[in-house]
Amino acid sequence: MNYMKCKKCGEKAVIKMRQHKLALCKPHFLEWIPEQTERFIKKYAMFSRHEKILVAVSGGKDSLSLWDVLWRLGYSVDGVYIHLGVDGGVNYSAVSEKYAAEFAHSRALGLQVVNVPQIYGATVPELAESTSRGQGRACSVCGLVKRHIMNQVAYDGNYQVLVTGHNLDDEAAALFGNTITWSTEMLQRQGVVLKEAPGFARKTKPFCRFYERETAAYALLSGIPYIYDECPFSIGSKSLYYKDVLNRLEEENPGIKLNFYLGFLRARECGFIPQKDVSPERYAQRCPICNQPTTTDGLCSFCRLVSRE
Ligand code: AMP
Ligand code: ZN
Ligand code: ZN
Q1: Distance 199 CA to ligand 3 centre (A)
Q2: In the structure, which protein residues have their CB atom closer than 6 angstroms to any atom of ligand 1?
Q3: What pLDDT is recorded for position 309?
Q4: CA 114/CA 117 separation, integer angstroms
Q5: What is the reported pTM?
Q6: How much of the chain exceeds pLDDT 70, in percent?
Q7: Rounded CA gap, 226 and 100, in Å?
Q8: 23 touches 6 (CB < 8 A)
Q9: Element spanning 166, H or E
Q10: How far apart are CA 245 and CA 248, in angstroms?
Q11: pLDDT value of position 66
């Protein structure tokens, strides 16, 4: 029969990863993802089995697959879901929360839910409306809110490590955006591991070398229900546009996305981009409301946002 064969066993393959010249059947693909994840965790010295890990889960395929894989690999991982109050005509935040909660329940894992409108009296789109962050402000306000809450939950819960489900498509698109605008500060922050600093857990992205289609395939093949919709506010965003551009390049040049990102990581290792300063002096100043380290005088940008000053 003329079908694509699994490289490991010769049975029918369900996925071909052209950038690795690798086709795998379902059981071997479901083995390959955790094996590779473990390899990345070691290679980039992300964390160990003795550390307490917090995974930020959005209810999407990446973060739920990541939680599943880390759990299967025997890491100690709890989850946090941030309800941002996004409706978008599809009840986006409530539906995403349902997927995150169902996943946690099915595996008896701990999930903390932080409900932004309940705590701060406004949804993220409302907070975005009240600022002057300019075009794309919903996404930039959302990013600020998520970062702040993830940091806070990790710190309050004594987690040494905070992990997110960013995949290679996310990272390559961010790298593309940061390069095309030469945002050096953003490039500095864009490593695989952002070291712990006073007041902050170490941050890392164990799935940063998997293509989005691989994390989607993992979720589907392992039967993890997740929210298919993109956030309604991301439609038409720069990052989706950059993903599309990179996918068009990838179509004709298998592996170009991966090499773009890995080349950046190597350049970083060689000192092409200076490492972020994590010395204690830089974190000496604290926000009087939330006590998170801040580089600005007075309230941190999150507390300024929610107090709508
Ligand atoms: P995004 O910023 O939407 O591309 O998502 C990147 C990663 O951030 C996801 O893989 C999750 O790990 C995390 N994340 C996104 N949205 C949420 C959320 N509402 N609550 C918790 N974590 C989230
Ligand atoms: Zn096989
Ligand atoms: Zn603050």
Answers
A1: 12
A2: 56-58, 62-63, 80-82, 84, 146, 164-166, 170
A3: 60
A4: 9
A5: 0.95
A6: 97
A7: 8
A8: yes
A9: none
A10: 5
A11: 98
